[in-house]
Amino acid sequence: MNYYQTSTTSTVSERQVQQANPNTSFPTPFSSAVLTDFGLLVLDYDAKPSITDSQKVIEGAIEVRDGVAYQTYSAAAKSDEKIAAELANKKTRVRAQRDARLSASDWAILPDTALSDANKTIYTNYRTALRDAPAQSGFPDNALPESPNEQPHNDWTYDATNFIWEAP
């Protein structure tokens, strides 16, 4: 548990209080008498605000209300550079996932594969959709095409036009 030390206006843990006072025996958890003697208030946390992708949560001031200290939070805009860096990182991660899916399906386009011509066409179209994914609007937030060989349940069928598995 964390506490707000009124004399220093800082947050401290039980362990920090115990280490700063090695010759004192403390009950666990701290009693109200210990809190009063050491100028401590229980530290609680306000709810963090809902944010968008262009915002971040920052810690605000600690407010004392009804004998309890509350850590407050607010939303702040991210810098354009931070937003651009996060988008670039996300695109890199999704491209790596796409590349892994392409590598996992390389076997399907080999000339000596045992697939029927219809299944080869399905895999060829799937791989084309994977390669085209970065050019689609909404990239990297839209889902990558699902592989024809990763059936989630036995009774699901593969939609080779939209590259998704469908429940019955």
Structure description:
With 168 residues, the chain is an alpha+beta fold. The protein has 2 domains: 2-77, no CATH class; 80-166, no CATH class. The protein is built from 4 helices and 7 strands. The chain has a 5-stranded mixed sheet with strand order 2-1-3-5-4. A hairpin with a 4-residue loop joins strand 6 and strand 7 (164-166). The mean pLDDT is 93.
Short characterization:
By secondary structure, the protein is an alpha+beta fold.
Largest sheet: 5 strands, mixed
| Count of discrete alpha- or pi-helical segments spanning 4 or more residues | 4
Q: Helix share of residues?
A: 25-40%
Strand content: 15-25%
Regions with pLDDT < 50 over 5+ consecutive residues?
A: none
Q: Whole-number average pLDDT?
A: 93
C-alpha-based Rg, rounded: 28 Å
- Helix-strand makeup class: alpha+beta
User: Secondary-structure element order, as H and E?
Assistant: EEHHEEEHHEE
- The total strand number stands at 7
State the distance separating the first and last CA atoms: 50 Å
Strand order, sheet with most strands: 2-1-3-5-4
* Structural domains: how many: 2
Give the assembly state of these chains.
single chain
Shape descriptor reads elongated
